[in-house]
Amino acid sequence: MRPRHNTLTPQELEIMKLVWQRGTATVRDVYEALLERRKIAYTTVMTMMKILETKGYLKKRRQDRAFLYRPAHPKNQIIGGMIREFIDRVFNGSAEPLLVHLVKSRHLSEKDLQKIARMVKESE
Amino acid sequence: MRPRHNTLTPQELEIMKLVWQRGTATVRDVYEALLERRKIAYTTVMTMMKILETKGYLKKRRQDRAFLYRPAHPKNQIIGGMIREFIDRVFNGSAEPLLVHLVKSRHLSEKDLQKIARMVKESE
DNA sequence: CTTGACATACGAATTACTTAGTACTAGAAA
DNA sequence: TTTCTAGTACTAAGTAATTCGTATGTCAAG
């Protein structure tokens, strides 16, 4: 059976980004990183990371007295799943209209467009 | 002030797609379209469409005894907002990594790639 | 040994999303 | 007129997401 939806809620994603960035992280590491941007309680972060573990996004082992968490899957895989889910939900599974939007609505810089052009060439 | 988040929940989006498709629609129209895909109650659809109206996504006027709903904003604008929100949330606002994912992970067909190439050319 | 710092475990409250039931109303049909 | 039908209004309940408080345990410093 398929691994299901591979989709992270906004706060879960925020935490996963930090753990991916660091490779491994304790609750305190993540807590302090989040604190720089917004008010949040230590136990909130702990709860979220526990949830991420039960959902299979994080693995943990003891390091001294605290748990050391690390990603259970590579970032690319999880982000890819989120893109897939987004495309399914918003564009009924077809990526092409997303592209059209990106190009038309200036989400892409000139530099981005050139980069795509190169990638397209390379894929030929 | 900014129009805020311009983001639709999954079920809201499902309904908006149907209304955009039709131009205008009654609760019954949407209800019957949804029924073809899954079990759902008439009043559920009504509630959702009322929510969409209070959130400013739909406008309504009476037609005979029922309300006739129509989109308050063009599809492109709302979908564009959802793309923006996704890119902000997942890629910290930069569309380029999304592109890289799309190209690398075969979300895009060969035909899509050619279409991009044309669009890039045209935008020069 | 006692205390303080720091960690986890557990439980719970709040809000948003989704679903749907019940009551009521007005027009159509008998 | 009475009854049936199709609609709206209102209410509520379940689930998921997010937040955090309290209780508890352990290690180290005094």
| H/E element order of chain A | HHHEEHHH
Biggest contact: A-B, 34 and 34 residues
Structural class of chain A: mainly alpha
Helix content of chain A: 55-70%
How would you describe this structure to a colleague?
- Two copies of one chain form a homodimer.
- Chain A has 124 residues and is mostly helical.
- Chain A contains six helices and two strands, in the order αααββααα.
- Chain A has helices spanning 10-22, 27-35, 42-54, 75-91, 96-104, 110-122, and strands at 58-63, 66-71.
- Chain A has a two-stranded antiparallel sheet.
- In chain A, strand 1 (58-63) and strand 2 form a beta hairpin.
- At the A-B interface, helix 4, helix 5 and helix 6 of A face helix 4, helix 5 and helix 6 of B.
- The first copy, chain A, binds a DNA duplex (30 and 30 nucleotides) through helix 1 and helix 3.
